[in-house]
Design brief:
The protein is an alpha/beta fold and 756 residues long. The protein has 29 helices and 31 strands. Helix content is 33%, strand content 17%. Bound molecules: iron/sulfur cluster.
Length: 756
Amino acid sequence: MHDPEGKRSEQRPGRERPVAGLTALGETARHTLRVPGALRRVRTLLQLNQVRGFDCPGCAWPDPEERSRAEFCENGAKHVAHEATPRRVTRKFFSRWPLSKLKDQSDHWLEQQGRLAEPMLKRRGSDRYEPVSWEDAFQHIAGVLRQLDSPNEALFYTSGRTSNEAAFLYQLFVRQFGTNNLPDCSNMCHESTSTALPEVVGTGKGTVGLADFDRADAIFLIGQNPGSNHPRMLTSLQSAKRRGCRIVSINPLRERGLVSFAHPKELRGLLGKGTLISDLFLQLRVGGDVAVLKGIMKAVLEAEERAPGSVLDGSFIREYTTGFEAFRKALQTVRWEDVEAQSGLLRGEMRQAAEIYVGAERVIACWAMGITQHKHAVSNVQEIVNLMLLRGNIGKEGAGLCPVRGHSNVQGDRTMGICEKPPSEFLERLGKEFGFEPPQEHGLNTVGAIRALAEGQAKVFIALGGNFVAATPDTHYTANAVRSCRLTVQISTMLNRSHVVVGEEALILPCLGRTERDMQGGRPQFVTVENSMCVVHRSQGHLAPASKHLRSEPAIIAGLAETVLKGRTKVPWKALARDYDRIREHIAHVVRGFENFNRAVRAPHGFVLQSGACSRAFETASGRAHFSVHPLPRQTLEPGQYLMTTIRSHDQFNTTIYSFDDRYRGVRGHRRVVFLHPTDMAEAGLEENQLVDLASHFQGEIRTVAGFRAIPFDLPRRCAATYFPEANPLVPIGSIADRSHTPTYKSIVITISPSS
Ligand code: SF4
């Protein structure tokens, strides 16, 4: 790997070992068999991602049509073992654990206490949760909501695990209540994708299917670490490699999952024989994405100038795009020296990537939060589109855009209307379907919601899943904001930080998990989800519910809506919750692409929501794909400053921590760590594992965290990496992406000092 400031540190022994392999099998067994009820969990695992089974509550990587008997990865097994735990958090648990004691426990400890088993209420001035009936809980919430001066004083958050049916009912309830305050976890992850793509290709979603990975000649993996965050993607990448497809990885950290993969379902994989994944690994500087993409495109244009008409797809550009000339002129004014300085790479490396791009007839570009959580995230995404348009790599087999979502139904929730700025067409169809005037005024996104809580404009916070307090930026600011509100309500499966950091009053409403049987109206119900590749399919759990008190998300929302909206709603809430087909009939009338939903989703593999871009019918203002022009962001660091990016370990899923190990990065037993280049550590006089304090610097504001271990790692000079959510206190509430307002978890300026 290139290092303009001298030779990069030697690789630690074994760090280049392939990921997965026998160890993944061992870890799967360990998580599945380590607590009582192992047989039950093994049976459950065999239903995971199966046609008549349940969808993995983990990431949103799609399932192949041909499913293996064990259609899951190691992390999928961890998610199932976690949800199917025999441990229960009952009234007895809360009688032993007042909030004043729970707050001192780690996030990992809280999540390990087990499944929430019954509705609990914490009254104003009390330090304890006490049992409450469902009806009393709904009445309590209704009472507080009715006291508000405006519906906009309430916030209704959604996590990406929520099913389509629950999400549709939730947004309907919230809009009948009178607000669009529907912040969701997508605001913190792919919002930049949903903001950037519609204006340049006419859809906010990807344009490829899993089958396209079988036809691509080259795949670009940008700001993504599939080895830990989308592990089954490695199967598709491995088979692509075996076909001769070339892969370019663009990531500051030399992630083992981008280097080599040993398939745990193959003998050679179990023997540790890996498949090289990346043909080229560009370790750009944190936040250098626009620069590296401009560098690759400059090299492509240079190749075109050397052999006019042989590199660019001229007919595609003429027929299907607009803005090329302005784009080309602007790019020509960008100097290579600036591109190298801002990317942290040499032009030679970007030219290598361009050669691979130009040498391929069909290219797929994949990205995740390494692209979407920066100040210039919208530009990052649109520069990826610019690159793909140059050779017509959108709307043809084996080519296209692939934003990979990190939560199983985060895309589906947005499709169902979970959005603080809903399209007017959607509101019109919703109002017509249910005979009411939906609120038109845009609501608050996640950062806006936190500010409203902190400034007292919002007084009630209701969360459908998730762990808001841990997942959000500026942890102490957010925690104080949440504590200041009158009522917090968490609809959840597992105990977490957001049940401990609460408002004056707090309610816990425990719901069914993905793995569990959902009986309504005396019949088993299934829900639906939408994965990263726009496949809408069913999910049905078969396990007996963890407690007789649990209710499904749709049933909870229906009960709440009926109570809160008493006398001002004609929606037959309870009837909808008794038969999800009836919810889907309404979805079919309101959401475009869901016509005949109940019939279409009963097909073995569900159906695909095809956007116009998939066939080059770009639904943009001009009806064409747009080349766009973006300035080259310039990041300068003062002496002693680093650009910090937050990452996930291999043993976590979003804020759920399964262990303190991160074997692909050589970390055991720690999560408060900061990865640094060995030369930077030497120059700063830091020893390996030395405890250090980190301080972030933003518009004159300083935020600190203490007691992090300095760990040498293969990443560019003056860059640092820490774990989400431990480093979230360093992410300022005001540090957000332009236009999409996604918190900039991936690039924060910090300084490091030895702990005293
Ligand atoms: S790749 Fe993602 S969706 Fe598939 S089993 Fe693993 S965690 Fe679950």
